[in-house]
Amino acid sequence: MKRGSRAETAKSSTRRQFLAAGSLAVGGAAALVASGEVLAAKPVAGAENLPPNVPEWMKAPGADVGSEPYGQPSKFEKAIVRNMRKDAKQYTSFWSGSPLEDLEGTITPNGLFYERHHGGIPEIDPAQHRLMVHGLVETPMVFTMEDVRRFPAQSRTHFIECAGNPPFTRIYADKASSLVGLVSCAEWVGVPLKTVLEQVSIKPGAKWVIAEGADAAALTRSIPIEKCLDDAMLVYGQNGEALRPAQGYPLRVLLPGFEGNMNVKWVRRLHVTAEPAYSREETSKYTDSMPDGTARKFTFVMECKSIITRPSGTQKIKQGFNEISGLAWTGRGKIVKVDVSTDGGKSWQEAKLQEPVLTRALTRFRLPWTWDGTPTTIVSRATDETGYVQPSFEELKAVRGVNGVYHNNAMQPWKIAESGEVSNAHVKA
């Protein structure tokens, strides 16, 4: 049967006629859906495209192959973009968050990967980009991008998270991406940093590698040599394509589990030294201020953390079945358990972890839940393979105070009102 004849046939059959013909007898209305809409007898807006009618988009051929040389999301998804404040004084040194509440699975699309730049996004010609490795090495060398790509490559999946995600004083934001959107996860492709350091032969006494980016801020961070010889990488690929400019094109450092700014983007220089650089980004910034006025030094690892992304702030749920879903991660290895409370922390249930659970990668958790319509608070609590359990904000504040900006890994509770509206359960005093 030709498509046109099917459409003509459908036009003659309205939804009311369909119901009248007894189609609901196929198991009855209750058996049709658990939470979707039952075939309605009353006409609704756009009903001409609803079953049993043939929708408009089936009545003519769609767009040609190749109409989009680089594929884009559906126009109906255009509202799903990075989350960014609109009131900043400047955006050269600023950030934008991944829309965690709108994402599926654990991999962040390249176009929605969070951003944190300190001197804007440079436009770098890879043919002119060089990586210099020098200092306490036997053979100082300069590598082209072609040289870097000739080393044996590896693919690994890891998250990167900004250290200030969120600051201790900014726990009152309305939705997940506004709170902890500065975390994303990707499949990275590149060469182990250890391989490159073996090429230049580091000398005895080498304790640090100081990485410098080719951005206008020349962002510089000191990396312990142990990390460089362990799982550190120099990456040029992300989720199946070249790094995006905002993610360090053509080459960046990847330090699985370490705070985001240490994963230096647009890396141009690796200086092997005996001492750390004590650069601006590791003295005046990215240190943790303590209640007694001292500061924690070199807190590189991002601790165990989780957040419920659905349902979460600004969303609205219906009474009945709702799946609770969210993300968990730790810079110290794998997530082994996520507990979820649906009564404000009085009791906990263990959520199911979606496989594969990878080291230093985002892990999706899910818990089936039937909401009876009573106002309540939901919250998640992750445990990693070291046995570390994610603290509540009160527990973390008792140790760290609220002077700090970085390494806040506290639980995030969401309040559900009788109307089904979800909001941040943290209330600003």
Low-confidence stretches: 1-33
DSSP summary, beta strand count? 23
User: For the CA atoms, what is the radius of gyration?
Assistant: 26 Å
Tally of alpha and pi helices: 8
Distance between the termini: 68 Å
Helix share, percent: 10-25%
Mean pLDDT: 91
How are the strands of the biggest sheet laid out side by side? 4-3-12-7-8
What is the 3D shape? globular
Beta-strand portion reads: 25-35%
- Specify the structural class: alpha+beta
Main sheet summary: 5 strands, mixed
Question: In a few lines, what is going on in this structure?
Answer:
This protein is an alpha+beta fold and about 425 residues long. It has helices at about 5-10, 15-20, 30, 145-150, 175-180, 195-200, 225-230, 395-400, and strands spanning about 95, 115, 130-135, 140-145, 155-160, 185-190, 210-215, 220-225, 235-240, 240, 250-255, 265-275, 290, 295, 305-310, 320-330, 335-340, 350, 350-355, 365-370, 375-385, 415, 420-425.
Q: What's the SSE blueprint?
A:
Blueprint: H1 3-11, H2 15-20, H3 29-32, E1 94-96, E2 115-117, E3 130-135, E4 141-144, H4 145-150, E5 154-161, H5 176-180, E6 183-192, H6 193-200, E7 208-213, E8 220-224, H7 225-228, E9 233-238, E10 241-242, E11 252-254, E12 267-273, E13 288-289, E14 295-296, E15 305-310, E16 320-329, E17 335-341, E18 349-350, E19 352-353, E20 363-371, E21 376-384, H8 393-400, E22 414-416, E23 422-424
Parallel strand pairs: 3-12
Antiparallel strand pairs: 1-2, 3-4, 5-6, 6-9, 7-8, 7-12, 9-10, 9-11, 13-14, 15-16, 16-20, 17-18, 17-21, 19-20, 21-22, 22-23
